[in-house]
Amino acid sequence: MRTFLPRLGAAVVLGVIAWYLSRTLNQFRDYQIAEIAVYVTAVAGLTVLTGLSGQISLGNGAFMAIGAYTTALLLIHQSWPFYAALVVAGAAAAAAGGVVGIAAARLRGPYLAGATLLLGVALPSIALAWPGVFGGDQGLNVVFTVPSFLGANFPLTRWQAWVSAAVALVTLLLLANLMYSRIGRNWRAVRDDEVAAALDGINVAATRVRAFVVSAACAGLAGSLLAVVTGLVGPGAYTVTLSIQLLTAAVIGGLGSLPGALWGSLIIVLVPTYITDVATSHGQSATVGANIPIAAYGVVLILVMLVFPQGIQGGLRRLLIAFFGPNQKSRTWRIAPTSDVTPSADEPSASQHEKEGTI
Question: Percent of the chain having pLDDT more than 70?
């Protein structure tokens, strides 16, 4: 409880900030807030998978596609309320993540990255194979309306920002508590030394599959949110480029750090818009301005890796330690340790891990 309350307070503060910004900024900024929240939800799951359990995935964009298409089909054909479709979308993506996790449990390093890359390339093409169900190239149109109690003149983009931010904050809060649970400690143990983890009674395969399930569920929730934010679900929005963007955001922000997911999402969403505006304002064509953000991603990633090898969040932590000393480190900034598996005073030792059954 003493660790849950500070995290809950941080989530409330972020929610108040998002609410205030959505009330004071224009509709385009509301859309950007919603987009940032979508990326935070997806990147947070990926940072758990890669940063905490040590598994590389280049296919989380495919899990987002599963969540998006599930939401679109339920809203269009079944007229489900969005919150119900959101839960089902997360569950569908989690189930797919479990299947992929079981298949990839024995893969490591580039082999795992290659397998998930194949998933990210192949899955969106299913929409082209069954155009009568998934809409083909044109995709599916998703209608998302403002509740009547907010009034007829309430901006849709503001409501989208509120819903997306709420889902992102709840996801972050759940992941933060999961990271310091027995499951989170098992992930860190498997990431650092699989042999030692197995000798300690941890089922390595089951632990790796759980990480895939959690990461895929977050991606499914993000895909569901993206469907109602953009109003269109098509195969072109969930290509392997999206998966690479998610991994880039996780690395830039700081692998294994939930605040890092926020920093990385801010970079991914805001930098392309800013760079494109600067390029077009200096006389560059729209085509050139649209391609510049790709180079900007690389430049930002290189700079962050040179200046802050542990990402933006790791760099901020180092700056805090440099200014205030090592005793000033707070768990607010260390939501998920990235290299230390030594339990704190209020956590059980490694010998107390419960033995788990096989898959």
Answer: 85
What's the average model confidence in pLDDT over 196-217?
Answer: 91
Rounded to whole angstroms, what are the CA distances from 165 to 15, 17, 103, 266, 359? 7, 10, 33, 13, 35
Token look-up 């010998």 returns 351
For residues 237, 238, 241 and 245, what is the CA-based torsion angle, rounded to 10 degrees?
A: 100
Is 213 inside any structural domain?
yes
Query: How many Cα atoms sit within 13 Å of 305 on the Cβ side?
Result: 10
CATH number for position 308:
1.10.3470
Say if 359 falls within a structural domain.
no
Rounded Cα distance between 215 and 91, Å, is 11
CA 29 to chain CA centroid, nearest Å:
20
Two tokens, residue 213? 């399930």
Token digits of residue 88: 């089902």
Q: Which domain holds residue 306?
A: 4-354
Which residue's structure tokens are 């929610």?
15
In a domain, 35, yes or no: yes
Compute the distance between CA of residue 230 and CA of residue 223 in angstroms, rounded to an integer.
10
Q: What is the C-alpha separation between 97 and 293, in angstroms, rounded?
A: 30
The share of the chain scoring above pLDDT 90, in percent, equals 39
Could you tell me if residue 219 is inside a domain?
Answer: yes
* Residue burial 291-330, b: 16+ Cβ < 10 Å; e: rest: ebbeebbeebeeebeeebebbbbbbbbeeeeeeeeeeeee
Q: How distant is the alpha carbon of residue 187 from its chain centre?
A: 17
